[in-house]
Design a protein that fits this description.
Layout: E1 2-8, E2 11-20, H1 22-37, E3 42-53, H2 55-70, E4 74-78, H3 82-90, H4 95-100, E5 113-115, E6 122-128, E7 135-141, E8 157-160, E9 165-173, H5 177-180, E10 185-190, E11 193-196, E12 206-209, E13 217-228, E14 232-238, E15 245-246, H6 247-257, E16 262-273, E17 276-279, H7 297-300, E18 301-303, E19 313-321, E20 333-334, E21 342-350, H8 362-372, E22 375-381, E23 383-384, E24 392-393, E25 395-409
Parallel strand pairs: 2-3, 3-4, 7-25
Antiparallel strand pairs: 1-2, 5-6, 6-14, 7-13, 8-13, 9-10, 9-13, 10-11, 11-12, 14-25, 15-25, 16-19, 16-25, 17-18, 17-22, 19-21, 20-21, 21-22, 23-24
Helix pairs in contact: 1-2
């Protein structure tokens, strides 16, 4: 069996020859996975040289046909000899599916417009979301309290996290201080789903996927929750001459897209590497306030000396601003050395999955990540400002985003 790939216009052609038995079906699956990981979304699979197809192969192709359909891509099986065509018919494939591709709902290309005025490392396209989309940002707790004294019950608040919210902070999944205070750690919530890395010695992140009439709850010691609708959709990829797209550049694009001084942002992206940290201990425990001096900080924070989680899928949420105002400013930190740009972002890290580039259904995408993929980590994203000795900042390869102007902070 031979598997060869070539480029034909905007599609990739996979030419097969020989017997496509179970062993070669697995090899074909690996080839297709590599292509999707490299950003391929349009496939033509040429069967003109195939003499035999096993049921294992039809199963593999059905899997990747479904995967491409979810990614708003297309796959076409072409030049099938009569005997091979009969095997697909026996397996239940519709002839229209074999020859015309996966179909699926897609946005019209004309609804997107490129933005080349700030594309240093990335290529960007924007599309209008809700025409009246806007966000209200609710602040919780005092970030300075985390470093001054143990966090008490009066410092925490319970928040509801329905589908129309997203947020980040130091907190835990639960409804009371008694349930949560020993587990306070990095938390991210998007579209009714919550991820949290407990600081009580847990080795795995925890999560809760909402789906009923009662939304998830969390306890926050410090953080922010945005509520409302997005006004802009964003998709991005890395320019050919660049290694990756830095988070600060993405944040700048998002802020300029809404023509405001504060924006709420959710990004689903494929990672080049993340720069982040998470709590080892709860700031509400007996160990006292968080210490950021060396070497004590090592007992409080887990921080990698290099970018982590390369080639994973990540869900990032947060707020970016220029001139954020007195109330919001304590919750934000400088981003990527960009003059005046500040933000607060958390990331939930999942096992790799190619992401759709044209989706507008944030809720479906987020629930699919939580229910279909392994949650590996939850991080507070940082900018390491130590120059060549530091990690730098989070960088992504490609992805999609949702952006809305923050019109009120309360």
């Amino acid at each position: 069996m031979k598997i060869e790939t070539t480029q034909a216009g905007r599609s990739t052609v996979v030419r097969l020859s020989g017997r496509l038995d179970r062993e070669w079906a697995e090899q074909l699956s690996s080839t297709l996975e590599d292509l999707l990981q490299n950003g391929v979304r349009s496939l033509d699979i040429d069967f003109s040289g195939v003499t035999y197809v096993s049921s294992a192969a039809t199963t593999v192709l059905a899997k990747w046909r479904q995967e491409l359909s979810m990614l708003r891509g297309e796959v076409r099986l072409t030049s099938l000899p009569p005997a091979v065509n009969e095997i697909f018919a026996i397996a239940g494939w519709d002839p229209a599916d074999i020859h015309s591709g996966s179909g699926g709902i897609d946005l019209r290309r004309s609804s997107w417009h490129s933005r080349a005025d700030f594309d240093r490392s990335g290529q960007y396209e924007l599309a209008a979301g809700g025409p009246q989309g806007a966000l209200v940002c609710h602040l919780h707790g005092d970030p300075a309290r985390l470093a001054k004294a143990p966090v008490g019950q009066g410092d925490c608040s319970t928040v509801l996290l329905p589908n129309n919210t997203f947020g980040v902070g130091v907190g835990a999944i639960g409804a009371s201080y008694g349930q949560c205070h020993e587990r306070l750690g990095e938390l991210i919530a998007v579209a009714g789903c919550v991820a949290h890395f407990p600081s009580d010695g847990a080795r795995m992140a925890d999560y809760l996927v909402g789906g009923g009439q009662v939304p998830p709850r969390a306890m926050l010691a410090s953080g922010l929750i945005c509520e409302g609708d997005f006004s802009q959709l964003l998709r991005f990829s890395t320019k050919s001459e660049a290694e990756a797209v830095p988070l600060s550049e993405l944040a700048t694009v998002a802020l300029e897209a809404v023509h405001g001084r504060i924006a709420g942002v959710v990004i689903a992206g494929e990672t080049q590497g993340l720069c982040g940290a998470r709590l080892r201990r709860s700031p509400a425990g007996d160990a006292g306030p968080i210490r950021f001096d060396v070497p004590a900080v090592r007992d409080w924070l887990l921080f990698s000396p290099e970018r982590s989680h390369s080639m994973m899928t990540t869900l990032i949420a947060g707020v970016v601003a220029r001139d954020p105002g007195d109330r919001l400013a304590p919750h934000l930190r400088p981003l990527g050395g960009t003059d005046g740009l500040v933000g607060h972002f958390h990331a939930a890290v999942f096992s790799y999955r190619p992401l759709p580039q044209r989706t507008v259904d944030l809720g479906r995408l987020v629930r699919g990540l939580f229910t279909g993929h392994h949650l590996r980590d939850v991080l507070h994203l940082l900018w390491d400002e130590r120059g060549s000795a530091g990690v730098g900042e989070t960088a992504l390869v490609r992805g999609v985003g949702w952006v809305g102007p923050v019109i009120q902070v309360g």
